[in-house]
């Protein structure tokens, strides 16, 4: 059983009505080296999903780094308004999480997960062109909506590749990328802030623009990689 065959089985489980002929229980798999096959799947699946989750945490936390480089002053907002902008992110995030997996079952994971990522990358870039408080709140709501389905979508996607006994380690592996994002996001923001004044944009704007641009590039690649 090749990795490609395993992929067909996975795709049939994610899209059960797509092609019932993809899964053939009568195929003899007794000669399969299961450990070797699982290692190949690990290399192909887990690292890229970890990168997506890293970008997810990196982008949602960028606003905290932008605050350190005078975003509040430039947008003429108070601390209370800033906290409201942080809070509104989580309302659509919480509401859309369960809906996302329902939608995922109707599309290929490569389409749905990558499209979500592309949208939030665009929204992230738009943060770099903010001029007022209303725009900030609007973009935070849109970002929460776009990012909501990634975590449950990835967990569901991984469950289509592995047996239940194999899931824990893989989920833990990609989940650790959130810790990595927190570890170096401040250093990355400090480096980007040195672009202050380039193109007439303050340093905090470039934090959003560059991180959003990288997310967009990864989203485009994901259409083929996932």
Architecture overview:
The chain has helices at 3-14, 34-60, 62-68, 71-75, 79-88, 90-104, 109-126, 133-147, 150-159, 164-175, 177-192, 203-225. The protein contains 12 helices and no strands. It is mainly α.
Order of helices and strands: HHHHHHHHHHHH
Q: How many DSSP H or I helices? A: 12
Q: Distance between termini?
A: 20 Å
* Total beta strand runs: 0
Beta fraction: under 5%
What low-confidence regions span 5 or more consecutive residues with pLDDT below 50?
1-5, 7-14
Protein name: MFS general substrate transporter
Condensed summary:
The protein has 226 residues and is mainly α.
Label this structure with key terms.
226 residues; single chain; 75% helix; mainly alpha
Describe the SSE topology.
Elements lengths: L2 H12 L19 H27 L1 H7 L2 H5 L3 H10 L1 H15 L4 H18 L6 H15 L2 H10 L4 H12 L1 H16 L10 H23 L1
